[in-house]
Amino acid sequence: MASINEAKALRKATAQTMSVQEKDRQAKLQLLAEKLKKQGLAGQKLGKHKVPESNVIVQLGEDLTESLRGLKVRTHCRPIPSCKLIYFP
User: Fold this and answer.
1) Residues β-bridged to residue 88
2) pTM of the full structure
3) What is the distance between the alpha carbons of residues 2 and 27, in angstroms, rounded to a whole number?
4) What is residue 23's predicted lDDT score, i.e. its pLDDT?
5) What confidence category does residue 5 fall into, taking pLDDT thresholds of 50, 70 and 90?
6) For residues 28 and 72, what is the distance between their CA atoms, to the nearest angstrom?
7) Backbone angles phi and psi of 9, in degrees to 5
8) 3-state secondary structure the chain
9) Where along the chain do its domains lie?
């Protein structure tokens, strides 16, 4: 008889714990959604790539030059030998 009473008490305590955990999970999801609305995906990793935090320079189709000779080359070099070439008109 004592084990039946303990089982009811344990079930009640487990239900309360689960409801508290569910409320915490909902609060975390809401904070994450608000952060996503404010910042977007800036600074987060998507797969093996990280989304840049600063504004990215984008060229529209009408701004592109007709040939590659009209493009200016700018290099962004680091102390290591890897360099990125970025073409600007």
Assistant:
1) 72
2) 0.44
3) 38
4) 93
5) confident
6) 47
7) -65, -40
8) CHHHHHHHHHHHHHHHHHHHHHHHHHHHHHHHHHHHHHHCCCCCEECCEECCCCCCCCCCCCCCCCCHHHCEEEEEECCCCCEEEEEEC
9) 2-88
